Structures are given as structure tokens and as C-alpha cells.
User: Fold this.
Amino acid sequence: MELPDDVVDDLRKRLRRAGGQVQAVEKMLAEGRECRDIVTQLSAAISALEQTGFRLIASGLTYCIQHPEEAEASGYPIDEVQRLFTKLA
Assistant:
């Protein structure tokens, strides 16, 4: 399945943001920060990763609807994309 360049750019931006949040959690642990602050930052990182996954699946689903034959030929029939979605949900 081919993802549009703008989607790839968006996904990469989201992943960089999540990576920064994970690094912040590591730093907070090293500094002995309060548990509630660490959990808040960890929650933000988890949410960022989930949103990245949903954006990826949404793009894939759009591709499958617009190009069903090509999607199926490349191993992404609509039911497979639906299964991928439920892994994230």
C-alpha cells in the first residue's frame, strides 16, 4: 500500500513528538520527579503513539476504498485493514 507523502510526513512528525515524550519520561525518572508528573507525560506519549496508529490505519482504509483491487493485490484487502484497526482499538 502506498501512503501519500503528506501522510508519511505527518506520521513521522507524530513519531518524533512521541519519541521526545518518551525521552522526557526517562529524564523525569532520572531526576526523581513526582509519580503523577511522570504518569502524565507517559500518558501523552501513549496517546501520541495511538493517534499515529489511527492516522496510519485511516490512510490505509482510504486507500483501500479508493483502490480496492490494488490494495488487495498488495496484501491489504479491506478485511485485513479492519483487523489492523481492531489491534489499535
Remarks:
- The mean pLDDT is 93.
